[in-house]
Amino acid sequence: MTPEHQRSSDIQDDMAIPCGSSVQQSAEPDLPPSGSNLFSVESNPTSSRVREYKGFGSFMSDNVEDLVRVPTTDYKAPDQPAHVILHVQSSTRKLGPLKDMPFGRQSRKLFMLDFERWTFINHGAFGSPLKIAFKAAQKWREHCERQPLRFIDRELFPQTVHVLRKLSALIKCSPTDLVFVQNATQGLNAVINSVHLEPEDAVFMLSVGYGSVKKILKAACDQSGASLVTADVQFPLIDGHSSILDLVADSLPARAKLAVFDAVTSNTAVVLPIQHLVRLCHSRGVPVLIDGAHALGSMPIDLTALGADFFVGNCHKWFCNPKGCGFLWANPMYFAQYGGAVKPLVISHGSGSGFLSDFIWDGCRDYSAILALEVTMNMWLQVGVKRVDKYIKTTLAAACELLTAQWKTSTLVPLSMCANMALVEVPKMPWLHISSATSDSACTLQNMLYERRIECPVKCIDGTLYVRISVHIYNDLDDYKVLGDAIMDLKFHNLE
User: Fold this and answer.
1) CB atoms closer than 10 angstroms to residue 462
2) How does strand 256-262 pair with strand 227-231?
3) What's the CA gap between 422 and 413, in Å, rounded?
4) I need a surface site. Which of 199, 251, 421, 469 has the fewest CB within 10 A?
5) Which is higher by pLDDT, 31 or 106?
6) Which residues on adjacent β-strands are paired with residue 230?
7) What is the pLDDT of residues 25-58, one digit of tens each?
8) What contacts 223, CB < 8 A, 6 or more positions away?
């Protein structure tokens, strides 16, 4: 290939297309004159030389604090690379009308999982990305490496702000109060480390909170001399959500500087009454941080209506985005009342230039999961969010009914307190434990399921073993029949 032909091919690959534009798969993009540049910043060398930096550091893009504040009516989305747009359009055409796609086995083509070899009923652990979003992220990585300086200096920040604005509309908050983080754990660390604690202060959580959150809070207390107060949740929850609210009302210390609650608990799969918890804590003058690691994709989110002080979430779990994209929302009312600011764990060029500037750049790394999030959001809108939720809730109820009937057991809590997961008690296995089960018993049983190519966690709650089953649109009742039969077979293991 001659140098002229090579240059023309590179331009065609990098052709920028306005976001949302229609491109025919067979059409060739119109090429500019050979050697010209497609990006307006570089198309006029004279204007490039006299241009002043508008944002932080030496990045050539516009100030992100300005971009995020542009009114929706005046906002213009940045152009996107042709090969990203073409990939999405081509893949969508091959899938057919998504709003009519049957769930269960027929929707497995949307995911990356190895369904041929595994019965996968543990989506709640780390999720699984939509194939189209995973490949879109790969297209963004390729686009970056074709000209990394152009991408990082001129394109990355406007593209990130665009996706951030889209996400803010989905979860109903102002984009000025929202930032991306790599995952919920990173967001939790940022918030907790930003709360000023004194030795006489306390932080509060429930015993069903996520394990790493307990360690984050303990570390903050060890450093400051504050106290970690943990309220012990006892099962069964006789009065449902009222049991949780009564416990918090009785246990919340007056000196608490922060209360942390899960939207959905990980180990016990319980949906907590977070709106009521926020109101209760605020009535006592206690700020609230919601760990929404399991929230996006499993329940509606309206951050403005919720009124918590902070909310962190993952996009890779139930929302099925490529891993490496989470979010942190900070209520401006908190800062108006208490002052201070949430600071990122990594200080870089944007530090001190605003909330978004603080978080948008933490060094040179792969940001493609953030850019692919728009594809993920659009996919779920096309599939139908209400349709997804109905299928998951119906299948979860049917799976729990099947397993409890076969095993003659029950769920940990009523399904009205569950989202996309539930804990189902397994039948007693004398060979595994004589009286009370332990975490070692759970580990042994989970490994035995794994050996049968069944991916399903086993939990030990108050000396009793449960499986935590997850449901997503690729699951059907046959998956839980496989699990049910395997447990019955293992029940009599070593008793022959």
Assistant:
1) 10
2) unpaired
3) 8
4) 199
5) 106
6) 205
7) 333 333 333 333 323 333 333 334 445 778 888 8
8) none
Determine the Cα angle at 391 with ends 396 and 489, to 5°: 35
Burial 425-458 (b: 16+ CB within 10 A, else e): bbeebeebbeeebeeebbebbbebbeeeebbbbb
Which two three-digit tokens encode residue 368?
Answer: 């493609």
Sign of CA dihedral 475, 476, 481, 484: positive
Q: Helix (H, G, I), strand (E, B), or coil: what is residue 80?
A: strand
How far apart are alpha carbons 250 and 234 in whole angstroms?
Answer: 14
At 261-271, the pLDDT tens digits run 999 999 999 99
Residue 275 is predicted with a pLDDT of: 98
Higher local confidence (pLDDT), 429 or 111: 111
- 160: Cβ contacts below 8 Å, ≥ 6 apart: 64, 180, 360, 367, 370, 371
Confidence of residue 326 (pLDDT cuts 50, 70, 90): very high
pLDDT digits (tens, 9 = 90+) for 363-383: 999 999 999 999 999 999 999
In the predicted structure, residue 399 carries a pLDDT above the cut 80 = yes
Cβ-proximal residues to 182 (8 Å cutoff; 6+ apart), any chain: 324, 325, 326
Distance CA 385, CA 382 (A): 8
Backbone angles phi, psi at 331, to 5 degrees: -75, 120
| Residues pairing with 330 in the sheet | 310
Contacts of 153 by beta carbon, 8 Å cutoff, 6+ apart: 58, 59, 60, 61
pTM score: 0.90
Phi, psi of 330 (to 5 degrees): -125, 125
Query: CA-CA distances (angstroms) from residue 234 to 253, 268, 412, 424, 436?
Result: 19, 11, 11, 17, 16
Q: What is the pLDDT of residue 27?
A: 36
Residue type (1 letter), 273: P
DSSP 107: G
- The torsion region of residue 23 among left (phi > 0), alpha (psi -120 to 50) and beta comes to beta
Rounded-to-integer distance, Cα 115 and Cα 138, Å: 22
The span from the CA of 190 to the CA of 496, in Å, is 54
Give bridge partners of residue 290 from the DSSP assignment. Answer: 261, 311
For residues 146, 147, 153, 156, the Cα torsion angle rounded to the nearest 10 degrees is -10
User: Tokens 């009785």 label which residue?
Assistant: 250
Distance of CA 326 to the CA centre of its chain: 5
As given in the structure block, the two tokens for residue 311 are: 């909310």
**Identity of residue 249:** A
The distance between the two most distant Cα atoms of the chain, rounded to a whole number of Å, is 85
